[in-house]
Amino acid sequence: MQSMTIRRAIGQDAGRLTTLIQESSAYQGEYASIISGYRVTADYIARHQVLVAVDPVERLLGFYALVVEPPELDLAFVADIAQGMGVGRLLMEHMIGQAREAGLAEVRVVSHPPAEEFYRRLGAERVGMVAASPPKVAWERPELRFTTVR
């Protein structure tokens, strides 16, 4: 993996984060409805722990958003160009460290169905399923938990 930095997102990153979400190949076809019209705003970035992975020229490789109350991984995306390069793993390891520092014992993840195995490989445990909520989400989603205590 090339040199990468994880830093706190700033309001000016909102447009790039929105673009990364909207262009994600993971949300094409049957899953497109969940991100249709979704926007990351500067206010969202200010209210939550949003961290971005960037390369040395500030190209966005991925990001995550950790909501502290209640503890939940709200968003996690890796740019299509960075898939398979370890960016997602590094972001999730970072997120768990941030959650631990914030005193959170666990972090809930409502997973995109194709991403469940990724989270499980990193140590998340499935604790249930979240029911569909049509029309935007017409499918069940795995509910997982990362335990952050060592």
Automatic annotation (TrEMBL):
Key words, A-Z: Acyltransferase, Transferase
Domain N-acetyltransferase, chain residue ranges per copy: 4-145
Organism expressing this protein natively: Streptomyces violarus
Keyword Transferase: yes
GO molecular function: acyltransferase activity, transferring groups other than amino-acyl groups
Listed InterPro entries: Acyl_CoA_acyltransferase (IPR016181), Bact_Acetyltransf (IPR050832), GNAT_dom (IPR000182)
A Pfam family reported for this protein in Swiss-Prot or TrEMBL: Acetyltransf_10
Name this protein carries in UniProt: GNAT superfamily N-acetyltransferase
